[in-house]
Protein 1
Amino acid sequence: MSPAVASAALPTSRWCPTPEQLMILEEMYRGGIKTPTASQIHHITSYLSLYGRIEGKNVFYWFQNHKARDRQRLRRKLLLHQHTLHLQKQLMYHQKLYDHNQPNHQSHLLHYLDSPLHKLNQGRVEDASTQLLNGTWKADLHESGYNVANLTNRFRDCDSTMKRIMVDIDASSPCRNRTLKTLELFPITTTVSLKDQYTTATQVPNPSLLLE
Amino acid sequence: MSPAVASAALPTSRWCPTPEQLMILEEMYRGGIKTPTASQIHHITSYLSLYGRIEGKNVFYWFQNHKARDRQRLRRKLLLHQHTLHLQKQLMYHQKLYDHNQPNHQSHLLHYLDSPLHKLNQGRVEDASTQLLNGTWKADLHESGYNVANLTNRFRDCDSTMKRIMVDIDASSPCRNRTLKTLELFPITTTVSLKDQYTTATQVPNPSLLLE
DNA sequence: GCAAATTAATGATTTATTCAAG
DNA sequence: CTTGAATAAATCATTAATTTGC
């Protein structure tokens, strides 16, 4: 059925540069030729045909593509680098807060935890979305007041518990429930300063935690 | 006008614990008393009144608040730590991609750059919002094909330029425009391998870049 | 240095949740 | 399933601590 296709010089549909051609082209590119003129392309083409079949359009396309892809690579590398720097900076900042217990680390952390950024980091896309939509989140840290909105006081008789406990306490009724160890409660041998108390009380959690 | 307000024991509206009282309370808390019973509160109160005016409810509230805020502090420390780890992990990952030119770093970075997360990091709240709303962004990296959607081929006559240039080249019209230095174009002394080309061509940009 | 202004800490209250008994 | 006691979480309000502009 099939007719006689030339079995010798298989008709490849597109130019396939030989290693020598590639080397030369790259060298010229590095040498400063980024967008050769028509005449330059002609010269290059004739020179490169010493190393294999080649046409002017091949040279033209090669420089076009090479330049574009060079720019692309650079752009991406730059962005990646920027991102790395961003991460480094963030990390340093948080490490500082973490290590030194900075005074305002709480508010910063709270703001972060409330941000759509954090929610996205956690994969809570829906939350982040609605938050952004409602304009509920302010990027400015200083106006990050809670949006309590309308807390209807539905429960006006809710302080009963507290009052009962208070009555219990203030009406002087000692020794009621459970095992009370009144005497052991006051082993007051405090030689620890308040500052020491605070600093030693806050331990670093063990680092076997993972994200998400 | 103003009547005689007791000028002696200025009527402070709320209890202000003396340093001794605080020390004792903290010591007891550290000793294990987290939610004292009514009777315990009574004992503590009577003991602490040796060091200054105090009521049962003060003790009650103090333990409530102290316990709650202790938990809170722990929680926040944990979260901060988690966040630090997250950042570290991200950083290490990107550093790896950056340093080693990993094969799929491009798609990863592209995906990140297209994500609302990145837009939020840049402060482009609106963009992120609409993106999330439209469901335009897929969190799963594996289905992160560009949502090219409907790229209407509005530009059907766009290859005209290209065609003109091709004609210029292949119709063999040498020495047309500009200063052509045909001979100096081929100083082919290439001893550089392709690999070296690539690796040396991509330099790290200078680190004076800032986020946002 | 100091006094007003801002911010953080914490005592006091209110609201929400848990859990056991009925 | 409902109820109520107990407690945890959230919030309000005042005091202590810091910053800031003379």
Protein 2
Amino acid sequence: MAKWLVKSEPSECGIDDFVAAPGGVIPWDGVRNYQARNFLARMEEGDEVFLYHSSCKHIGIAGIVKIVRSHYPDPTQFDPQSPYFDSRSSAEKPRWQAVDMKYVCTLPRLIPLDELKSIPGLSDLPLVKKGSRLSVMPVGEEQWQIILHQVQPA
DNA sequence: GCCAACGTTGGC
DNA sequence: GCCAACGTTGGC
């Protein structure tokens, strides 16, 4: 089962929004980057995902969610009222995908970006690379375990 | 609020 | 197909 990481501004959708959502489920839509979309499309039901808080006071990994519905056409691309509307998309040829994610847990402590950057085993993670804007990325099993261990320092 | 880094667009 | 211009991301 694959592991992932997604970025989000907590003012838009943070781990607390998952806690408050009906059934803990939130559709992950509005992704408008091809590389990120391609990763979204590879997510499968049951895959676990780190939720990263960006552009806020406490930047870092805040919790874990999981995929409860794999990719389907992102409805916001068809909605002229939506900021994510894309006139180049059609029902026959949808350009963008969404998945549904469900709350799993809030980490006992948020793991800050600078801490993640300091761990040698994570140097390949796009998240810690300078200037990386990728908002959906795969996390290797080994990387996943390293991050989990980091929650409770020995 | 600033600005470096990035992805996308569009003219050629 | 190249690349300059532009808009956006996201840490600081």
